[in-house]
UniProtKB/TrEMBL annotation:
Native source species: Phakopsora pachyrhizi (Asian soybean rust disease fungus)
ATP-binding among keywords: yes
InterPro entries: ATP-grasp, CarbamoylP_synth_lsu_oligo_sf, CarbamoylP_synth_ssu_N, CarbP_synth_ssu_N_sf, Class_I_gatase-like, CPAse_ATP-bd, CPSase_GATase1, CPSase_lsu_oligo
Keywords: ATP-binding, Ligase, Metal-binding, Nucleotide-binding
GO MF annotations, alphabetized: aspartate carbamoyltransferase activity; ATP binding; carbamoyl-phosphate synthase (ammonia) activity; carbamoyl-phosphate synthase (glutamine-hydrolyzing) activity; dihydroorotase activity; metal ion binding
PROSITE patterns attached to this UniProt entry: ATP_GRASP, GATASE_TYPE_1
Protein name as it appears in the record: ATP-grasp domain-containing protein
Amino acid sequence: MVIKQVPTLDCSQPLDDQLHFLKLFGPTSNQLSMVAMVLELADGTIYQGYSFGVQKKSISRECVFQTESSTDFLYKGQILALTYPLIGSCSVPERNDNLLSNHLESSCIHVSALVTGSYSGEVKPGSFDGLFISNGPSDPKLAEDTIQRIRQATEMKEFSNFGICLGHQLLALAVGAKTLKLKYGNWGQNITCNNLQSGQCYISSQNHGYTVDTQSLPKGWKQLFVNANDQSNKGIYSPQHPYFSAQLHPESAAGPQDTKFLFDIFLQSVIACLQDGSFLPVTMPGGSHFENSLKNPRVLVKKVLAIKGLKQEGVYTILINPNIATIQTTKRLDDKVYFFPITPEFVRKVLGTPISTIVMTEDQELFANSMAKIGKKCVMSASATSANNSIDAANKSGYPVILQAAYALGGLGSGFANNEEELVDLFGKAFSISSQVLIEQSMKGWKEVEYEMVCDCCNICITICNMENFDPLGIHTRDFIVVAPLQTLSDEDNHMLQTMAIILVCHLGVVVKMPRWDLKKFQQVSSRLGSSMKSVGEVMAIGRNFEEAIQKAIRSADPSFTGFDKNHIVTDKELKNELMNPADCCIFAIANAFDTNQTLDEVWELQKLTSEFGIRPFVKQIDTVAAEFLAFTNYLFNTYNIVKHHVTFKDWGIIVLGSGVYRIGSSAEFDWCAVRAICTLRGRGPRAVMINYIPETFSTNFDKANCLYFKNISVKTILDIYDAKKSSGVMISKAKENTISCSFWKG
């Protein structure tokens, strides 16, 4: 394929329609030098068009046409629009049968339609109501013609101007400021950005290597946003005119959506200019920084763990806890400990989430009314204090429904009813726990997604993590297998839900985690899972992908579990019922359903080959900053999905085995023993290496051990870590009773 230049265009004649958008304020030097080009293929086919970018240059290269989008099943049923001007893709060689089979590739077109037009409507040059300056690449100083046009637009003082990313830099250059190149740039979608007007902090998406030099801002212009990390400029505004800009990406589909309100501000300003001719500066929400700082003075806290944080700030701490088996009641951790029950008689004030918020979230009717105030919908629900009221509420909402005892922990007294007869059967248990019950439309079978949020007194919110439940709704939250981060939602849905969570938190004030059941000790207890919690603890597993993490989680839940493979826990006769009515072994029912006749013996035979071929796991450091900066943590795990260790082993240390998964009769008191062992080791000099996989224990805190491995406790795991670190010893049974020592003794 060859692209060749043809004679220069006669710019006295109208350009093609697709070039009209370039003519806002008359022709520029670039337009006057535009040339027509032809694309000539090897078979002699010729296509005519206009050049953009580098001028007066002919090239000869391979021509690649984009076809994969139309055959991609992800676009099924959608109308596909190709982005201009970057339409195209790289050629991809076929993979052999050992990698990606040909039958896995789509052989048909899935899209419903393909948009081929280059614009959606006729553009009239010079006729517009507001000027929006979009993003783009490269050094902003190179866009001299665009800068000149923006300068003319600002001098006209007739309409609002709003620029983002490169548009922000171009606006700054147009009004007389300067730009400079950052040493590293800001690249990522989780970059904190402060609003200097209100003091509000936003999580933003940024992608740039240049910034505006704030020292060069002319008189009459001020900073609007500042990067909270490197203090570089991220926005400017005019206090006299409706001109403002943001270096961040409020439009980014990658999220977050914290700053989408900037588009609303721009449109409101455009409408105001049109309706009454007012040419007033834009106003940001959130009030003034000074007023907010007086209302909510900033307090610098060194730690987030309550007791440790208070101690480090010099606050005298008094702990009320009747449980003697927790690390909280350890000597020297608190100034004073009272073994009293946590009741209103002993507790007068609770710090943290207001009591009113807790009551509102536990009372479904109050919660629904609260959501209606901010325009958010909830499923139909009602509270009832008698059997007749409950039946009326269920008939009104429609079956199936879920009945819950009000203010009951762990889903106690709750259940699903598909008809009135099943609802009546639930009354006895529910009303024996509470005088009030909640009737709600059943969402059993829906996907459940969780967001962990932190919000301060200024309504500055951050999302700690998002989680997706492996099981559908209908099972109690603590009995779920939970995967973090989200695996099956689109990025757009993820950030839509995250924005919703932030709205709820501000209004109210408010990896794979696998539960562990221990039901065999109670012969009369049903193993069926439902809206009442039955798990006694949980494990956490970390991997490079979902498949690796779920295997680790299953093996961690019980030493007898080999992973997600063919098993005898669920028989063929029980399989269908187990899938329809999940119990504590539902994950193994799924494994059997997916089984492809490969026996356990064959799987074990493959596992034996790992040592013979030198296949060993490597140590990976847990990345706590989403790969945007170098991570320095002592959180580690083993994985086969990397090719070298992420850490160096300069000292050996002593391995301490954690308590492992909780069982009935074995819980936090054993973790206390492990923590005291770590503290004693570190106090005497040796480095302590903790192996544990329980996220809710004190031994897995970041500052307890020198190194923390989130791994299941087995002979193989211990030997992998021992061989990698060349540890000087292993404390086997300090945290609980186990049979690991017998396995080591047998060799």
